[in-house]
Amino acid sequence: MPFPFTEDAERDQRKLWHPEQRLTSVQNSRGIHHYLYDSKGERIMKGSVLSNQVAVNGVSGNYTNGAVEFDGYLLYVNPYFVARHFKDWVEGSKHYYMGAQRIASETMGYVNEQGITELPHQPEPMKASSSTAPYPVSGVLGASSAWQSLEYLLQELGANLGANFWSDVTDTVPAYKQFFDFTTYLEQTEEVCTEQGHLGEILQIPDCLCASSPYYAMEIHEIDCKEFRQIYWYHPDYLGHNEYITNKSGRPYQYFHHSAFGEVLVQRDANYGSFQTSYTFNAKEFDGETGFGYYGARYYHPTFSVWLGVDEGLNCDAYD
After folding, report:
1. Which range marks the domain in which residue 112 is found?
2. What mean pLDDT comes out for the span 236-248?
3. Strands, E, within 99-246: which ranges?
4. Residue 176, CB-side half-sphere exposure with 13 Å CA sphere
5. How confident is the model at residue 294 (pLDDT cuts 50, 70, 90)?
6. Are 279 and 266 in contact (CB under 8 A)?
7. How many Å apart are CA 27 and CA 15, to the nearest integer?
8. How far apart are alpha carbons 236 and 283 in whole angstroms?
9. Per residue in 59-117, pLDDT tens?
10. pTM of the entire structure?
11. Of 184, 236, 238, 239, which residue is 20 to 30 A from 49 by alpha carbon distance?
């Protein structure tokens, strides 16, 4: 489920860039958002560090010790599978394509048996002024490189890292219950996921419960949601913007109406289900934590209708 974006997150955003025009971090009122790429420049991970900010001499952006909350990473395994890791649960989405066009997404979840309890090995401390790049410019990022990059970016953006920073980070990876509240699950399923049996009894509808949350369907109702596939279909307009999202029964699930430059002017959501698509304008991924659209080579700011960064495919020599 993406961040519900508000204008507050747009204001006073600080951005850090890789020398090869890759956006590595954004700091705003929500926290510090971290992006990792492979050697080809494709984004492979993203996550957020949320923290209480304290204004010092009228300048915000300083982070207090012991107030860091790690939101976990969204891992892009490949174009067909994306997974968000919680401490006790992995929430995944499988994507189906017709050529280059994404036509459907299937949601799933499974128990995170390994958990996130410790780092592969403690990364060496890095100073913000270090001449060593905190991110390799070639090769796929490893676990150590990812943690080093995060530490470097936090220091660059003013985070005050204590001696127990890394243990604090792994301890604050949220459980699924912190991400999707049980009360919300009950509110969603109380009316739409029940039916009356032949004897007048109230019966739960397993397929509907799995659509709302496979985690709670398994934990509370002992339902194996693998038997009830949850597929959502994309219906783009003639410009390729995903306008309608329908569930596997063909019922409307989400609706988006965009301005000519990409702002969401109208959004309507069904009153059930935990799935929220991120692929809207141009069918590209929308980062709710920053308000930017991710286009692979560049990011796009729909509010101001401007590109962030230079297109990697641009031949600058042609203008010399």
Report:
1. 7-179+229-319
2. 92
3. 101-111, 194-196, 202-204, 230-236, 242-246
4. 22
5. very high
6. no
7. 7
8. 8
9. 444 444 445 677 778 999 999 999 988 878 888 999 999 998 999 999 988 887 765 54
10. 0.79
11. 184
Distance CA 38, CA 253 (A): 34
Q: Is residue 48 within 8 Å of 34, Cβ to Cβ? A: yes
**Cβ atoms of 285 and 305 closer than 8 Å:** no
Q: Give the per-residue pLDDT at 243.
A: 94
- The phi and psi torsions of 186 (rounded to 5 degrees) equal -65, -40
Say how many domains are in the chain. Answer: 1
Tell me if residue 148 falls in helix, strand or coil: helix
Specify if 13 maps to a domain. yes
Confirm whether 186 is domain-assigned.
no
Please tell me the distance from the alpha carbon of residue 205 to that of residue 192, in angstroms, as a whole number: 9
Query: Would 33 be classed as within a structural domain?
Result: yes
**Phi/psi of residue 81, nearest 5 degrees:** -150, 130
Residue 250 in this model has a pLDDT that exceeds 70: yes
**92: Cβ contacts below 8 Å, ≥ 6 apart:** 81, 82, 83, 84, 107, 108, 109, 110
- Is residue 11 classed exposed, middle or buried when 0-12, 13-18 and 19+ CB atoms within 10 A define those classes? exposed
Residue with tokens 């399923």: 189
What is the pLDDT of the chain when averaged over all its residues? 76
Q: What is the mean pLDDT of residues 132-161?
A: 59
Asked if residue 246 lies in contact with residue 234, where contact means CB atoms within 8 angstroms, the answer is no
Report yes or no on 204 lying in a domain: no
Amino acid at 132: T
Rounded-to-integer distance, Cα 68 and Cα 170, Å: 11
